[in-house]
Amino acid sequence: MYIGLDFDGTVVDHRYPDIGEPVPGAVKWLKRLQQCGAKIILFTMRSNSEEGSYLRDAVRYLEENGIQLYGVNMNPDQAEWTTSPKVYAHVYIDDSAFGCPLVQPRGFAAPCVDWKVVGPQVEHMCLNMG
User: Fold this and answer.
1) Domain spans, the chain
2) Do residues 10 and 47 make contact, with C-beta atoms less than 8 angstroms apart?
3) For 2-129, CATH number?
4) Integer-rounded Cα radius of gyration of the chain
5) Are the beta carbons of 37 and 105 closer than 8 angstroms?
6) For residue 51, what pLDDT band results from cuts at 50, 70 and 90?
7) Where are the alpha helices (DSSP H) in the chain?
8) Percentage of residues of the chain with pLDDT beyond 90
């Protein structure tokens, strides 16, 4: 199972260009999803520029928290069958996605993904794909 994963508002609070506080449950659920075989692809607007290494910061944050990325803004497997720039995934987890359950933790700049709802649903999908 491929998971396209947004960063700001999904894994951390919206504090771009800084890294915000962790979204409750995000790292825990991402680790569980990896254990059931999910391949996580960071799919974010963050990039590296003369002003900063915003994408590298996000990648580093995930890696330091035990999340092994399968790809960054690309699915390495899809080059075999398409030249489309859209990242192929079975599910996209993004606070901006229509219908994504959100919560507003105290002190957060904006609503973020509700991993208490999203985590179990995506894990169920992952377990049933095998």
Assistant:
1) 2-129
2) no
3) 3.40.50.1000
4) 14
5) no
6) confident
7) 26-35, 54-64, 115-129
8) 93
